[in-house]
Amino acid sequence: MLVDKVQEVFNEPGCATNQDKSAKERKKGCTKSLKPGAAAGGCAFDGAKIALQPIADAAHLVHGPIACEGNSWDNRGSKSSHSQLYRTGFTTDLSELDVIHGAEKKLFKAIKEIVLKYDPPAVFVYQTCVPALIGDDIEAVCKFAADKLGKPIIPVNAPGFVGSKNLGNKLGGETLLDHVIGTREPEYTTPYDINIIGEYNLAGEFWQVKPLLDKMGVRILSMISGDGKYNEVASAHRAKVNMLVCSQALVNVARKMEERYGIPYFEGSFYGVSDMSDTLRNIAKLLVGRGAPNDLIARTETIITEEEARAWRRLAPYKDRLTGKRVLLFTGGVKSWSMVTALEGAGLEIIGTSVKKSTKEDKERLKKIKGEEFHMWEDLKPRDIAAMLRDAKADIMLSGGRSQFIALKAKVPWLDVNQERHVAFAGYEGIVALVEEIDKTLSNPIWRQVRLPAPWDAPAPALGETAAE
Amino acid sequence: MFKAHQSNKAAAINPLKMSQPLGGALALLGIDSCLPCFHGSQGCTAFGLVLMVRHFREAIPLQTTAMDQVQTILGGYDNLEAAVLTMYERNKPEVIGVCSTGLTETKGEDMRGALTIFRKKHPEVAEKCNLVFINTPDFTGGIEDGFANTVTAVIDAMVEPASVKVSNRVNVLAGSHLTPGDVEEIRDLIEGFGLTPVILPDLSTSLGGRQPDDFTATTLGGVTAAEIKGMGAAVLTLAIGEHMRKPAEALELKTGVPFKLFDRLVGLEAVDAFITTLSGLSDRPVPARVRRQREHLVDGMLDGHFYFSRKRVAVALEPDLLYAYCGFLQEMGCEVTAAVAPTQSAILEKIRAWSLLVGDHEDFETLSRGADLVVSNSHARMSVSRSGAPLVRAGFPTFDRLGAGHRVVVGYRGTRDLLFEIGNIFLANDHEHSIQDWGLEGTTEGHHGGSHAKA
């Protein structure tokens, strides 16, 4: 039952925020109740799709009216090095008659058409609000289709109205645990096999990290899910170590894989020099703990020393230019503390950050780095952000696309650090790229020009400069 | 009614269609001090919002009643009421427009009844703020339908019959296929005759790229509520696009203002008809500036036609824009090999193409094989990356190019610029002859079709 599943996800013991709650609070779930007329953000379906769609060789079929896929396909920057099928938008595009008569048969036909035409290794079928409401049983249809067509057809039961995008991420993860992970064996295994969980390869940024892992000799058994391959995800249970990238999104996958398959996991980040190094160290340490040869640790340290030195060398020229520049940082979760250290290393001053999506642990960590004085905003209204920018409290804002116009309309430099961005910011390469982007943006010559008032709006010139009346 | 052949696949693949509420929101964004809202789950709003932000590169005010599963079953009135009250209290907009969604329509929410109850319970809000509730189910129609239904609902809810006519006032019902730039051009043409247009909706003043002094959570710019109320005082309504027929009829029924429908404003003769109407209505000669613009277009047609003749073009757009592009391209000598629309419309009957289909981007990819040019929204970028055909981006959404809101194709000037844009693509891709081109019968097949003109 979906209700049980949602409850189970709310009870997630791996989630730091959850551990601080009473049993009663926990039952209420992780999402603040949404205020009609003042809510923002995606739905559970959106979240499930974000988590799963990066599995690139699978077909992703949305069972619903046109809004769910027609308004949203082709909008994510997750990159694939192999199949491009995940970028194809599939939907049953329910009509009025489907709503009246039910659309289970149409769903089966749609799955069949896709399998015959595209022959993907699997089809993910996403439930949405309308067919959930009319009682279309997608689990039954998927099972029937899987039997008939001889392929994994996977129901993703996360209709939008069950909750937020974050809940949807987790329900997407549950889908993998229930239907995918552990259903196939890898062709071979090595002592260096890891899974990366919760990394979506936005702007291809995992490819900034992969060469480091290759050099260490670490094999990525499966990516969950950026640049992912279905069969690799299905064999993820044979990895030696799991790395969990974005703590909030898929913690349930990492924790349950530990429970079921005994795979230890650690939370890490690819953002910033020291975080990147810690991540590499953790991977090496955990792999050695699981039987990989000891020399992995020394090899990793050599790589870290080289790469850190190179990164700081490349960052040094920016330091003079950026020292004292004030940054407003609005990102979710892990990225906050991860980026703070990284940016300060380049001389920037971070005046505050949002912690809306951060766990208690994230906040503690931030406090430790920055001291009690540092601004941490739980929920800042656009109007307040605009006022802050107008009063010139910050030189640049880093945030997601949703709030870009607050900065741009206040004629304040802005940089996209969220999911729609086109620049990759991961690893030692990425932090240099991020600082280069900040420098480019801050030093662009438009800022002085766009702040000039129109000549006719300017204050009247001083007396004597105009002809006497 | 005429029905175009419809693709009969169970799965739509790479959809061309977008939902009705999205069209509804687009219409409401052309009204000043307005807050549009979707009555549905918060994802309904988030998807629409993101798409419009990507297209216009502007802040888009769009709220949600944030329905969850329990509220959906128990009935969504409470959420609707709470949403309207919150939006009103926080932002004091002059207009609140609420579009239903697939979710609330499947449950069978009574939008009209909800409005009546709300007015009774909260007269203090209903008196100060114009409330428009619109039925826009996701599972029928598309953007054009949602846009037309919303404009009609705004007219029904807000326009008042007028006892006095203002002799130089005209209404313009501007369809969803017009960009803010197009609307600006239309206003310019109308004002050139000393006429004062009231444009519903007016995206040119709201989504063209405003520089506000302060942060605002409602729309900034667009036609005002007072102007909408006074639309009964106009002498004529100019309805632009076939899908504006329904609101034009509603306006005529309510106020007695007759309407004239222009199914497109792209192409020499189409613009001639529009200009003739304006000249007759104002009893003024055509301004010198517009005469020059016409000359320039004619000259462009003479210079450019070489490159258009017999070119094969495939077009996939919303119905009225599809008709405009197909018509113009044919008038320049092109062959329209494929015309694909996302939804049915009366205008499709007027489109002449080798194949005409209501379908998706996958159908379009198949039908557009071998075309010299593809015209569609940004989603076609994937199929042209496979076929190699040049793509002219038009319509909604255009998210991978700057200036989507300022693309102007209406009027003599707009047509001329479009002619040059497309003509330049043909010119750049023109086949350069080689020694192999004219092998005799049975040796090599030469290059047929295409332009052999020397510039």
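Chain A has a mean pLDDT of 89.
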